[in-house]
Protein backbone atom coordinates (compact mmCIF):
# COMPACT_ATOMS: atom_id res chain seq x y z
CA UNK A 1 0.00 0.00 0.00
CA UNK A 2 1.18 3.52 -0.76
CA UNK A 3 2.78 5.03 2.40
CA UNK A 4 0.43 8.02 2.47
CA UNK A 5 -2.63 5.85 1.89
CA UNK A 6 -1.49 3.59 4.72
CA UNK A 7 -1.16 6.66 6.94
CA UNK A 8 -4.71 7.80 6.05
CA UNK A 9 -6.14 4.38 6.81
CA UNK A 10 -4.26 4.19 10.10
CA UNK A 11 -5.61 7.46 11.53
CA UNK A 12 -9.16 6.42 10.56
CA UNK A 13 -8.88 2.84 11.81
CA UNK A 14 -7.45 3.98 15.16
CA UNK A 15 -10.35 6.41 15.57
CA UNK A 16 -8.21 9.54 15.52
CA UNK A 17 -10.36 11.08 12.78
CA UNK A 18 -13.67 10.32 11.09
CA UNK A 19 -12.12 10.85 7.69
CA UNK A 20 -9.11 12.41 6.00
CA UNK A 21 -7.59 13.07 2.60
CA UNK A 22 -4.26 14.13 1.14
CA UNK A 23 -3.09 15.54 -2.17
CA UNK A 24 0.59 15.73 -3.14
CA UNK A 25 2.24 17.42 -6.10
CA UNK A 26 5.89 17.32 -7.08
CA UNK A 27 7.33 19.65 -9.70
CA UNK A 28 3.82 20.67 -10.74
CA UNK A 29 2.48 17.15 -11.24
CA UNK A 30 0.13 15.16 -9.05
CA UNK A 31 1.95 12.19 -7.54
CA UNK A 32 -0.64 11.15 -4.96
CA UNK A 33 -4.25 11.56 -3.99
CA UNK A 34 -5.97 9.44 -1.37
CA UNK A 35 -8.75 9.53 1.17
CA UNK A 36 -10.10 7.31 3.93
CA UNK A 37 -13.04 7.24 6.28
CA UNK A 38 -16.17 9.36 6.26
CA UNK A 39 -16.97 13.05 6.09
CA UNK A 40 -20.08 12.38 8.18
CA UNK A 41 -20.33 9.38 10.50
CA UNK A 42 -24.11 9.55 10.86
CA UNK A 43 -24.86 9.33 7.14
CA UNK A 44 -21.82 7.26 6.22
CA UNK A 45 -20.93 9.70 3.44
CA UNK A 46 -17.32 9.03 2.45
CA UNK A 47 -14.51 11.55 2.69
CA UNK A 48 -13.86 12.33 -0.96
CA UNK A 49 -11.73 14.47 -3.21
CA UNK A 50 -14.42 17.14 -3.46
CA UNK A 51 -15.24 17.20 0.27
CA UNK A 52 -15.56 20.79 1.48
CA UNK A 53 -13.69 21.60 4.70
CA UNK A 54 -13.31 24.50 7.12
CA UNK A 55 -9.77 25.69 6.59
CA UNK A 56 -9.67 27.87 9.73
CA UNK A 57 -6.18 29.42 10.07
CA UNK A 58 -5.04 28.39 6.60
CA UNK A 59 -7.11 31.45 5.68
CA UNK A 60 -4.21 33.49 7.09
CA UNK A 61 -1.92 32.47 4.23
CA UNK A 62 -4.45 33.76 1.69
CA UNK A 63 -4.73 37.02 3.62
CA UNK A 64 -0.94 37.38 3.62
CA UNK A 65 -0.88 36.84 -0.14
CA UNK A 66 -3.64 39.43 -0.59
CA UNK A 67 -1.65 41.95 1.44
CA UNK A 68 1.41 41.31 -0.71
CA UNK A 69 -0.73 42.01 -3.77
CA UNK A 70 -1.54 45.42 -2.29
CA UNK A 71 2.19 45.97 -1.72
CA UNK A 72 2.77 45.31 -5.42
CA UNK A 73 0.05 47.81 -6.30
CA UNK A 74 1.64 50.42 -4.02
CA UNK A 75 -1.56 50.65 -2.00
CA UNK A 76 0.20 49.42 1.16
CA UNK A 77 3.74 48.77 2.33
CA UNK A 78 5.27 46.97 5.30
CA UNK A 79 5.83 50.22 7.17
CA UNK A 80 2.38 51.66 6.44
CA UNK A 81 0.83 52.64 9.78
CA UNK A 82 -2.33 50.63 10.38
CA UNK A 83 -3.96 53.86 11.59
CA UNK A 84 -3.48 55.36 8.11
CA UNK A 85 -5.98 52.80 6.85
CA UNK A 86 -7.97 52.09 10.02
CA UNK A 87 -8.11 55.32 12.07
CA UNK A 88 -9.39 53.49 15.17
CA UNK A 89 -5.88 52.04 15.62
CA UNK A 90 -4.25 55.47 16.07
CA UNK A 91 -4.02 55.43 19.87
CA UNK A 92 -3.53 51.88 21.07
CA UNK A 93 -2.99 51.03 24.72
CA UNK A 94 -0.83 48.32 26.26
CA UNK A 95 -2.13 46.27 29.18
CA UNK A 96 0.37 46.27 32.06
CA UNK A 97 0.86 43.36 34.50
CA UNK A 98 -0.93 45.31 37.22
CA UNK A 99 -3.99 45.78 34.99
CA UNK A 100 -3.26 49.43 34.21
CA UNK A 101 -3.20 50.73 30.64
CA UNK A 102 -0.53 52.92 29.07
CA UNK A 103 -0.17 54.31 25.53
CA UNK A 104 1.76 52.06 23.15
CA UNK A 105 5.29 53.36 22.55
CA UNK A 106 5.50 51.98 19.00
CA UNK A 107 3.23 52.73 16.05
CA UNK A 108 1.40 49.65 14.78
CA UNK A 109 2.32 48.83 11.15
CA UNK A 110 1.28 46.37 8.48
CA UNK A 111 4.57 44.52 9.08
CA UNK A 112 3.58 43.94 12.70
CA UNK A 113 0.28 42.38 11.58
CA UNK A 114 1.93 40.15 8.96
CA UNK A 115 4.51 38.88 11.44
CA UNK A 116 2.20 38.50 14.49
CA UNK A 117 4.37 40.98 16.40
CA UNK A 118 1.49 43.44 16.84
CA UNK A 119 0.71 42.55 20.45
CA UNK A 120 -2.89 41.80 19.44
CA UNK A 121 -3.92 38.54 21.18
CA UNK A 122 -6.67 36.03 20.67
CA UNK A 123 -9.53 36.46 23.17
CA UNK A 124 -8.31 33.42 25.14
CA UNK A 125 -5.21 35.32 26.37
CA UNK A 126 -4.69 35.60 30.14
CA UNK A 127 -7.20 37.61 32.19
CA UNK A 128 -8.50 40.25 31.92
CA UNK A 129 -8.19 40.06 28.11
CA UNK A 130 -11.06 37.54 27.65
CA UNK A 131 -13.53 39.73 29.55
CA UNK A 132 -12.54 42.80 27.52
CA UNK A 133 -13.03 40.98 24.24
CA UNK A 134 -16.27 39.43 25.43
CA UNK A 135 -17.65 42.86 26.23
CA UNK A 136 -16.66 44.33 22.87
CA UNK A 137 -17.92 41.37 20.85
CA UNK A 138 -21.18 41.30 22.81
CA UNK A 139 -21.68 44.96 21.89
CA UNK A 140 -21.59 43.96 18.22
CA UNK A 141 -24.76 41.93 18.68
CA UNK A 142 -25.38 39.12 16.20
CA UNK A 143 -21.98 38.13 14.84
CA UNK A 144 -23.70 36.64 11.82
CA UNK A 145 -24.70 40.14 10.75
CA UNK A 146 -21.35 41.73 11.61
CA UNK A 147 -19.12 43.19 8.91
CA UNK A 148 -15.34 42.79 8.75
CA UNK A 149 -14.89 46.49 9.51
CA UNK A 150 -17.20 46.35 12.54
CA UNK A 151 -15.33 43.34 13.90
CA UNK A 152 -11.98 45.07 13.44
CA UNK A 153 -13.25 48.22 15.20
CA UNK A 154 -14.16 46.06 18.19
CA UNK A 155 -10.62 44.61 18.31
CA UNK A 156 -9.18 48.15 18.32
CA UNK A 157 -11.04 48.93 21.55
CA UNK A 158 -9.09 46.17 23.35
CA UNK A 159 -5.52 46.66 24.60
CA UNK A 160 -2.32 45.20 23.24
CA UNK A 161 -0.31 42.69 25.25
CA UNK A 162 2.96 44.55 24.51
CA UNK A 163 4.35 47.33 22.35
CA UNK A 164 4.25 46.44 18.63
CA UNK A 165 7.48 44.74 17.61
CA UNK A 166 8.47 43.68 21.11
CA UNK A 167 7.59 39.98 20.77
CA UNK A 168 5.70 37.36 18.76
CA UNK A 169 2.14 36.43 19.77
CA UNK A 170 -0.39 34.31 17.92
CA UNK A 171 -3.59 36.33 17.78
CA UNK A 172 -6.01 38.37 15.70
CA UNK A 173 -3.38 40.16 13.59
CA UNK A 174 -4.56 38.51 10.37
CA UNK A 175 -8.16 39.43 11.15
CA UNK A 176 -7.14 43.08 11.47
CA UNK A 177 -5.37 42.69 8.10
CA UNK A 178 -8.74 41.59 6.69
CA UNK A 179 -10.14 44.94 7.80
CA UNK A 180 -7.15 46.74 6.28
CA UNK A 181 -7.82 45.04 2.94
CA UNK A 182 -11.51 46.02 3.05
CA UNK A 183 -10.71 49.65 3.89
CA UNK A 184 -7.84 49.93 1.39
CA UNK A 185 -9.69 48.40 -1.55
CA UNK A 186 -13.30 49.38 -0.92
CA UNK A 187 -14.23 45.73 -1.52
CA UNK A 188 -15.53 43.10 0.88
CA UNK A 189 -12.76 40.70 1.85
CA UNK A 190 -14.30 37.68 0.15
CA UNK A 191 -14.84 39.65 -3.05
CA UNK A 192 -11.23 40.84 -3.13
CA UNK A 193 -9.90 37.32 -2.52
CA UNK A 194 -12.15 35.94 -5.24
CA UNK A 195 -11.06 38.56 -7.77
CA UNK A 196 -7.37 38.23 -6.92
CA UNK A 197 -6.98 34.48 -6.38
CA UNK A 198 -10.06 32.28 -6.43
CA UNK A 199 -11.38 33.21 -9.88
CA UNK A 200 -8.00 33.27 -11.70
CA UNK A 201 -6.98 29.97 -10.11
CA UNK A 202 -10.33 28.23 -10.70
CA UNK A 203 -11.02 27.83 -6.97
CA UNK A 204 -14.78 27.48 -7.41
CA UNK A 205 -15.36 25.77 -4.04
CA UNK A 206 -13.50 28.34 -1.93
CA UNK A 207 -15.13 31.19 -0.03
CA UNK A 208 -16.50 32.40 3.27
CA UNK A 209 -19.95 30.98 2.58
CA UNK A 210 -21.30 27.90 0.84
CA UNK A 211 -23.77 27.43 -1.95
CA UNK A 212 -26.10 24.45 -1.94
CA UNK A 213 -23.66 22.30 -3.91
CA UNK A 214 -20.77 22.96 -1.53
CA UNK A 215 -22.90 22.56 1.61
CA UNK A 216 -24.00 19.12 0.39
CA UNK A 217 -20.33 18.06 0.24
CA UNK A 218 -19.19 19.66 3.51
CA UNK A 219 -17.56 17.53 6.16
CA UNK A 220 -18.93 17.49 9.69
CA UNK A 221 -16.69 19.14 12.26
CA UNK A 222 -15.97 16.69 15.08
CA UNK A 223 -14.87 17.28 18.64
CA UNK A 224 -12.52 14.69 20.09
CA UNK A 225 -13.15 14.13 23.80
CA UNK A 226 -10.41 13.30 26.29
CA UNK A 227 -11.28 9.60 25.96
CA UNK A 228 -10.90 9.77 22.17
CA UNK A 229 -14.62 9.74 21.38
CA UNK A 230 -15.62 11.71 18.29
CA UNK A 231 -18.90 13.64 18.32
CA UNK A 232 -20.23 16.44 16.12
CA UNK A 233 -19.10 19.74 17.54
CA UNK A 234 -22.12 21.21 19.28
CA UNK A 235 -21.70 24.79 18.11
CA UNK A 236 -19.42 24.10 15.15
CA UNK A 237 -17.35 26.89 16.71
CA UNK A 238 -19.65 29.46 15.14
CA UNK A 239 -18.94 28.24 11.63
CA UNK A 240 -22.31 26.88 10.62
CA UNK A 241 -22.85 25.95 7.01
CA UNK A 242 -26.09 27.85 6.51
CA UNK A 243 -25.23 31.11 8.25
CA UNK A 244 -23.67 34.30 6.95
CA UNK A 245 -20.92 35.50 9.27
CA UNK A 246 -18.10 37.96 9.52
CA UNK A 247 -15.43 37.48 6.84
CA UNK A 248 -12.27 37.18 8.91
CA UNK A 249 -8.75 37.46 7.57
CA UNK A 250 -7.55 34.89 10.09
CA UNK A 251 -10.18 32.18 9.67
CA UNK A 252 -13.43 31.30 7.96
CA UNK A 253 -12.65 30.06 4.47
CA UNK A 254 -14.18 26.83 3.21
CA UNK A 255 -12.27 24.96 0.51
CA UNK A 256 -11.34 21.61 -1.02
CA UNK A 257 -8.00 19.87 -1.52
CA UNK A 258 -7.84 20.71 -5.23
CA UNK A 259 -8.76 24.35 -4.71
CA UNK A 260 -6.15 24.86 -2.02
CA UNK A 261 -3.58 22.97 -4.06
CA UNK A 262 -4.11 25.48 -6.87
CA UNK A 263 -3.37 28.29 -4.43
CA UNK A 264 -0.33 26.50 -2.96
CA UNK A 265 1.11 25.68 -6.35
CA UNK A 266 0.82 29.37 -7.24
CA UNK A 267 2.98 30.12 -4.20
CA UNK A 268 5.47 27.34 -4.99
CA UNK A 269 5.81 28.59 -8.57
CA UNK A 270 6.86 32.04 -7.41
CA UNK A 271 3.46 33.65 -7.83
CA UNK A 272 2.65 32.19 -11.26
CA UNK A 273 1.93 35.64 -12.68
CA UNK A 274 -0.55 36.48 -9.92
CA UNK A 275 2.11 37.60 -7.44
CA UNK A 276 5.74 38.43 -8.12
CA UNK A 277 8.56 36.04 -7.18
CA UNK A 278 9.88 38.78 -4.87
CA UNK A 279 6.58 38.78 -2.97
CA UNK A 280 6.69 35.02 -2.47
CA UNK A 281 10.30 35.25 -1.33
CA UNK A 282 9.31 37.91 1.19
CA UNK A 283 6.44 35.77 2.47
CA UNK A 284 8.61 32.71 3.05
CA UNK A 285 11.64 34.44 4.58
CA UNK A 286 11.93 34.56 8.33
CA UNK A 287 10.90 38.06 9.40
CA UNK A 288 11.53 37.76 13.13
CA UNK A 289 14.51 39.21 14.98
CA UNK A 290 16.46 37.05 17.41
CA UNK A 291 14.54 38.62 20.28
CA UNK A 292 11.19 37.97 18.60
CA UNK A 293 12.21 34.42 17.71
CA UNK A 294 12.75 33.74 21.41
CA UNK A 295 9.00 34.20 21.89
CA UNK A 296 8.01 32.11 18.84
CA UNK A 297 6.57 28.64 19.46
CA UNK A 298 9.11 26.14 20.79
CA UNK A 299 7.95 23.32 18.54
CA UNK A 300 8.33 22.16 15.89
CA UNK A 301 12.02 23.02 16.05
CA UNK A 302 14.10 24.87 13.48
CA UNK A 303 11.37 27.18 12.20
CA UNK A 304 11.04 30.93 11.96
CA UNK A 305 8.02 32.98 10.91
CA UNK A 306 7.55 34.83 7.64
CA UNK A 307 4.39 36.62 6.56
CA UNK A 308 1.77 34.50 8.33
CA UNK A 309 3.61 31.27 7.51
CA UNK A 310 6.05 29.06 9.40
CA UNK A 311 9.33 28.78 7.51
CA UNK A 312 12.13 26.25 8.08
CA UNK A 313 15.43 27.95 8.87
CA UNK A 314 17.54 25.15 10.33
CA UNK A 315 17.07 21.75 8.70
CA UNK A 316 19.36 20.08 11.24
CA UNK A 317 16.83 20.74 14.01
CA UNK A 318 13.89 19.40 12.01
CA UNK A 319 13.73 15.67 12.54
CA UNK A 320 9.98 15.83 13.04
CA UNK A 321 8.69 16.91 9.63
CA UNK A 322 11.40 15.73 7.21
CA UNK A 323 11.31 19.03 5.32
CA UNK A 324 14.14 20.91 3.64
CA UNK A 325 15.35 24.38 4.56
CA UNK A 326 13.08 26.99 2.98
CA UNK A 327 9.93 24.91 3.40
CA UNK A 328 6.92 26.94 4.49
CA UNK A 329 3.22 26.57 5.28
CA UNK A 330 0.60 26.69 8.00
CA UNK A 331 -2.10 24.59 9.67
CA UNK A 332 -5.78 25.02 10.37
CA UNK A 333 -7.39 24.48 13.76
CA UNK A 334 -9.32 21.41 12.56
CA UNK A 335 -6.17 19.68 11.28
CA UNK A 336 -5.85 20.88 7.70
CA UNK A 337 -2.35 21.75 6.56
CA UNK A 338 -0.47 23.17 3.60
CA UNK A 339 3.23 22.48 3.28
CA UNK A 340 5.43 23.72 0.45
CA UNK A 341 8.99 22.41 0.12
CA UNK A 342 10.60 24.28 -2.80
CA UNK A 343 13.89 22.36 -2.60
CA UNK A 344 12.05 19.15 -3.47
CA UNK A 345 9.41 20.80 -5.66
CA UNK A 346 6.90 19.36 -3.18
CA UNK A 347 3.44 20.63 -2.23
CA UNK A 348 1.25 18.79 0.28
CA UNK A 349 -2.35 19.65 1.18
CA UNK A 350 -4.00 17.56 3.88
CA UNK A 351 -7.55 17.61 5.14
CA UNK A 352 -9.45 16.44 8.20
CA UNK A 353 -12.09 18.05 10.46
CA UNK A 354 -11.36 17.46 14.14
CA UNK A 355 -10.82 19.68 17.17
CA UNK A 356 -8.54 19.63 18.99
CA UNK A 357 -6.56 18.70 15.92
CA UNK A 358 -3.66 16.71 17.48
CA UNK A 359 -1.63 18.02 14.55
CA UNK A 360 1.59 17.69 16.52
CA UNK A 361 1.13 13.91 16.38
CA UNK A 362 -0.71 13.46 13.09
CA UNK A 363 1.21 15.79 10.76
CA UNK A 364 4.72 14.44 11.42
CA UNK A 365 3.40 11.00 10.47
CA UNK A 366 1.95 12.47 7.28
CA UNK A 367 5.27 14.05 6.32
CA UNK A 368 7.21 10.87 7.10
CA UNK A 369 4.85 9.03 4.76
CA UNK A 370 5.28 11.71 2.09
CA UNK A 371 9.07 11.47 2.36
CA UNK A 372 8.90 7.67 2.10
CA UNK A 373 6.72 7.96 -0.99
CA UNK A 374 9.15 10.39 -2.65
CA UNK A 375 12.14 8.21 -1.81
CA UNK A 376 10.38 5.22 -3.38
CA UNK A 377 9.94 7.15 -6.64
CA UNK A 378 13.68 7.68 -7.05
Number of strands: 15
Percent of sequence in beta strands: 15-25%
Largest sheet: 8 strands, antiparallel
Mean pLDDT: 94
Radius of gyration: 20 Å
Cα shape: globular
Q: Segments where pLDDT lies below 50 for 5+ residues?
A: none
**Order of helix and strand elements from N to C terminus:** HEEEEHHEEHHHHHHEEEHHHEEEEEEH
| Helix residue percentage | 25-40%
Strand order of the largest sheet: 3-2-1-14-13-12-11-10
Give the helix/strand class.
alpha+beta
Distance between the termini: 17 Å
Number of helices: 13
SSE diagram, text form:
Blueprint: H1 3-13, E1 19-26, E2 29-40, E3 45-46, E4 53-54, H2 59-72, H3 82-85, E5 93-95, E6 101-103, H4 110-114, H5 129-139, H6 148-156, H7 173-185, H8 189-198, H9 212-216, E7 222-224, E8 230-232, E9 254-255, H10 257-268, H11 277-284, H12 290-293, E10 303-305, E11 310-312, E12 328-331, E13 337-341, E14 346-351, E15 354-355, H13 359-377
Parallel strand pairs: 7-15
Antiparallel strand pairs: 1-2, 1-14, 2-3, 4-9, 5-6, 7-8, 10-11, 11-12, 12-13, 13-14
Amino acid sequence: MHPIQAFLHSIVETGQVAGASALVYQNGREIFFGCAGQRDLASGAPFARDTVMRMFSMTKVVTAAATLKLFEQNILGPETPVAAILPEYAHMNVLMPDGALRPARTELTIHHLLTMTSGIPYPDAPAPIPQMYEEQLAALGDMRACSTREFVRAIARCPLCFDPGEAWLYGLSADVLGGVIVAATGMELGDFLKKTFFAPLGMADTGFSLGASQAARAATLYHCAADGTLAPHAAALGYGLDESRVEMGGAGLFSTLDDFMAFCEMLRQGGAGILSPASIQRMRQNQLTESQLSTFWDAPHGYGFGYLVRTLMDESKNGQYRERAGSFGWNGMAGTTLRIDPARGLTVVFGMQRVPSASDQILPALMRAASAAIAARH
